[in-house]
Design brief:
By secondary structure, the protein is of the alpha+beta class. It has one domain. A 4-stranded mixed β-sheet has the order 4-3-2-5. Strands 1-6 form a two-stranded antiparallel ribbon. The longest helix is centred in the N-terminal third of the chain and has 9 residues. The chain is globular, with a radius of gyration of 12 Å.
């Protein structure tokens, strides 16, 4: 993905997404809205891990065909 003149964006792992959640006020991340953010961490075969920001709940059994939000990140 290239946006804002930058091309080093990536989809975070489950651990990186948890770190973003833990620092939500610092990075202005919308929590409490029930937004399920997909991560790049593979769950069970054919699934990807996600983090629900309304209840700080991670799940690894969401199929890759389902619709969820993605929070692109840049290297820091």
């Amino acid at each position: 993905m290239t946006t804002g003149g930058q091309s080093d964006w990536f989809v975070p792992t489950r651990t990186e997404m948890q770190l973003a959640y833990d620092n939500a006020t610092v990075i202005d991340l919308a929590v409490g809205a029930g937004l399920p953010y997909r991560t790049s961490t593979q769950g069970m075969p054919g699934t990807a891990a996600l983090l629900r920001t309304d209840i700080n709940y991670g799940n690894t059994s969401y199929g890759t065909a389902s619709s969820n939000y993605v929070l692109p990140m840049r290297s820091f």
